[in-house]
Amino acid sequence: MKKLLFSVAGVLILSFTALQAEARPTIEELQKRAVLDDYEANVVFGYNIVMDSNRYAPRYAGNGLRCSSCHLDGGTRLDGFPLFVAGVYPKWRAKNGVRNSLEMRIRDCFLYSLSGVMPPEEAPEVLAVSAYISYLSHGQPIGTPPEGWGVPTLPETGADPDPPRGQAVYKRECVMCHGADGAGTAAAPPLWGFHSFNEGSGMNAVPRLAGFIWANMPMGKERSLTHQEALDVAAFLHIQHRPFDPREGKLKKLAEEIYHGLSRLFGKKEPVTPQAAR
Amino acid sequence: MSLLREALPDLSWRRSVDVRRELAAGLVGALLVIPQAITFAYVAGVAPEYGLYCAVFVGFLASLLGNSPMVGGPNTAVSILIGLTVLPFAGRGSPLYTELVLALSLMVGLIQLLIWLGRGAALFRYFSPAAIIGIKAGVGVWLISSALEGATGMAPMTVKFLYEKFYIVLAGWQDLVNPYAALVSGITIAAGLLLRVRWRRSYVVLAVLIGSIAGGLIYGWLGPVASDLELLGHVTLDAWPLQTPVLGPPHWLFLEHAIAPGIAIAILGLAQTLVIARDLKSTVTPELDLHKEVFAQGVSNAVGPFFSSFAGSGSFNRTSVALEMGARTPLSGMIAALAVVLIAWLLGPVLTYLPMPVVAGVMVLVGIGMIQWREIRPMMNWIDGPVLLVTLFAVVFLSLENGILVAVVASVIFFVASASKVKLAISHEGGAEQIRVTGNLFYASLDRLAKHLHAHPSEHTALDLSRVPFRDATAMEMIKRVEIERARSGGKLEVVEEGR
């Protein structure tokens, strides 16, 4: 009898917590409310930044992209770089070799993918996006990556990614929305050039880009490309011009170029002979 | 009728204006105000655009409606107080925070208009100059201490007493301080202090230039990640940033809590404005109307939020530069406001890369400029000195708004103390005593005279009150009592009032 009572109580409590978990208000509901508390206001601000970075975070956003260009559907789509990943931060990343807080990770997006100005970790824009990510992470596991995070890793195809083939695929499938010059249209963001992500961003890696393309592109016909086609398009995009990696100081790079140029002009012109090398 | 005259812009200066001088003063003023506007926006906790809008719209309206070469716009003390008031209610820099700043500014403007209707300008006469200088120096200390995080590349921190911050930074500098940020801010401050000797007017602009070049070299060489220098970011100016201040339930709740600080901000803004105006009235423009300046300040602060700008007030440093450049009419202020739009638009792409440690350096330079030994030294006497020191300590160790309260109380106390000094000249002539009183006789100053009169009940005394301009009921009562007492014990009190 006692056991039964306990189990009934347990079930009640469980269902109650489940109900509470369900009771998370949607963004639309929050936007309609007259009064928001600080957390909710921050979530809405973060949502706005994710959906329209240039309008709501003009101080730090830089190019023609917005967060939702890669984090599809405002960061809610599985296999489209979903944003409900607050549970895995802080975590160590090879990119900068330190343990990254969520805020530190967000400002990397401003610096690389949005090719803008790196905000401080405590910038209101960063904190707002952080709040939005926490809000999305409601009910997701803590400490382990959630289902559908990042993009799928494509299996070995047996052939190298080939840019010329990728160009053909691009002309067939992507030109409609992204434009022949890759500068984007009203329907889709720019893929290369000065208004796209820079060489330091995560999208500037062929396997990841290929996984994203295969799982999410072309919009409305997702997963219609073969793995090889996705890899080829990714390789084609990878070799295009884009803003360079901001981690390398511009002045330093300029000085290096000047030094190399000068040494080519005035230095020894003969190639290094085996004798000299010995 | 006179209210209407004060409320309408007085354009009589048109007839005697030297346009070229005003233009030069205006352009220099615009160059000066841009780094300050960005700095004070940072101090108030809002995006840099709001500071520039404040320089444009508050500056323009204050000049248009006032009738003096005083330059209005973003102000140190007002910005600090706005930041301190709003910070407990919203995340720094968030949309709600900005809305609250604008709502607060609107309230400040309306309070100032109420003060105008109540003829408050007269009251500020009793605000002792020593208290103003004390507040100014205290604000300087606050500014320097709030620049500390930016100058060392740290996140803003909240401490109870400002010296704790210096302790934290000194104790943990190896972990906390970004050496590149410290280097850039150090170069900015050092350049400013060195250049100040030679170029008293434009040293801040030059220091910003030098600091930015240093920061640019470091940033360019190491890149954003390795140097970790914070940049200002894109400043997107809108030529016509119309918006209606949002007044929803959270805003009303905030305003309810912010009434006392709001009054403090209104008073502090007006106090600075009126100190400048009083100086101008006695030196440059004798026809200046203090009430008109109060109105101009109130309207510009109340209208400013509709143009995305927070509250401001008259500026000591920019006004004195404008005067040195030969500005004599409000035209220079209006030109400065309009030139800000142009210069900020031209500089826009460069401003993006302005390192924040340079902004922090400007804060320190402005702070040092507010603590002027030249102003403090003449105050080191027994009446002004205590008021100044008490105010300074209250501002530094309590808070700005409490400091203002202390300043008012200290001014009143020392005013009363100095007013209650009466001089008794006692002489004896043929057995009769003569007392000549100089000063005001009232409840606070009566003590010595009463004691003296009561001590010798049987004497004949002639009390000469011809140099007593004012006596209150308590004094008359005392004299009457002494007269009765003397009549009872054989003495006599004779009140002499020559020339009355």
Quick take:
Helix content of chain A is 50%, strand content 1%. Chain A has 278 residues and is mainly alpha-helical. Chain A starts with a helix and ends with a helix.
Question: Would you mind describing this structure in some detail?
Answer:
The complex is a heterodimer of chains A (278) and B (500). The N and C termini of chain A lie far apart (92 Å). Chain A has 2 domains: 24-136, Cytochrome Bc1 Complex, Chain D, domain 2; 151-278, Cytochrome Bc1 Complex, Chain D, domain 2 (Orthogonal Bundle), CATH 1.10.760. Chain A has 278 residues and is an all-alpha fold. Chain A contains 13 helices and 2 strands. Chain A has helices at residues 2-22, 27-32, 38-51, 53-56, 67-70, 72-75, 102-113, 124-136, 163-178, 206-216, 227-238, 250-266, 274-277, and strands spanning 91-92, 99-100. Helices cover 50% and strands 1% of the residues of chain A. Chain A is globular and about 85 Å long. The mean pLDDT of chain A is 85. In chain A, strands 1-2 form a two-stranded antiparallel sheet. Chain B has 500 residues and is α/β, with parallel strands linked by helices. Chain B has 2 domains: 2-414, no CATH class; 423-496, Transcription Regulator spoIIAA, CATH 3.30.750. Chain B is 65% helix and 6% strand. Chain B has 22 helices and 6 strands. In chain B, the strands form 2 sheets. Chain B has a 4-stranded mixed beta sheet with strand order 3-4-5-6. A two-stranded antiparallel ribbon of chain B has the order 1-2. In chain B, helix 2 crosses helix 16 (331-351) and helix 6 (129-146) runs parallel beside helix 19. The two termini of chain B are 37 Å apart. In chain B, 50% of the residues are buried. Chain A binds chain B through residues 34-36, 38, 41-42, 45, 58-62, 96, 111, 116-124, 127-128, 246-252, and chain B through 47-48, 90-97, 155-156, 217, 219-227, 230-236, 248-250, 352.
